[in-house]
Amino acid sequence: MNVITIKISGIDYNLKGEESEEYLNEVASYVDKKLKSLMDNNKKLSVSSASVLTAMNVVDDVFKSQSKLLSLTENISKLEQRELELTDQLEVLKKQLIHMENYNDELKSKITYLESETNEKTDQEEVIKLQDQNKVFEESGKAYLKENRELKVDNKELKFQLQSAKYKLIDMQHRLLENQIDLVKIKKEKNPLIVDKAK
């Protein structure tokens, strides 16, 4: 456990913490700046009153950070769910595309067979009919391929948004932790059992 002496509003305090000295000094500096800012804006404030207002500001920051954290977590869950849905749709489209390609191959085989068997009118009509069906299925296959490509693009964009949201979530967690440490520091200032004035 690290023990360091910090100065807030001109008063030295002994501070104990598991974090590094650099981090503890950074927290103390943050609290000191907030406290000085309040006192500079209102010269009539006592250190005690300014400390309470500083604590209120830090708690307000913590609550807002928690709200943003919750919102980001919900957004990430929605993005992950959407990604799963798109993945499922892609799998369904792949299966449909394979089925369409197989059916198309069957139609091509029938056309080839009929063309080689005879040139009679009835067979020619069947060939034309099968060719028309083949065109329809080829168009359907193209539509499926296009939808498949679009879903892949959507999926890629969602993955990017999901990664971006995760980075924002990590940043919000860091800010939340900083605000919570500020709050603990302010509480320690007011509680002589936790923080003693340096002798």
In short:
The chain has 199 residues and is mainly alpha-helical. The chain is built from three helices and two strands, in the order E-E-H-H-H.
Description:
The protein has a two-stranded antiparallel sheet. A hairpin with a 2-residue loop joins β1 (2-8) and β2 (11-17). The two termini are 20 Å apart. The chain is rod-shaped, with a radius of gyration of 34 Å. With 199 residues, the chain is mainly α. The chain has helices spanning 21-41, 47-117, 121-190; strands at 2-8, 11-17. The protein has one domain (2-190): Orthogonal Bundle (Helix Hairpins).
Based on the model shown, name its key terms.
199 residues; mainly alpha; Helix Hairpins; two-stranded antiparallel ribbon; 81% helix; disordered C terminus; Cell_div_ZapA-like_sf; Cell_div_ZapA-like; cytoplasm
Strand order of the largest sheet: 1-2
Helix content: over 70%
Measured between the Cα atoms of the first and last residue, the distance is 20 Å
Output the CATH topology: Helix Hairpins
Helical stretch count? Answer: 3
On the 0 to 100 scale, the average pLDDT is: 81
Assembly category: single chain
Strand content: 5-15%
Helix and strand string, N-terminal first? EEHHH
Largest sheet: 2 strands, antiparallel
Low-confidence stretches: 192-199
Rg from Cα: 34 Å
| Number of structurally distinct domains | 1
The helix-and-strand class reads mainly alpha
CATH architecture, by name, is Orthogonal Bundle
Return the CATH class: Mainly Alpha
Report the count of strand segments: 2
> Shape from CA axes?
rod-shaped
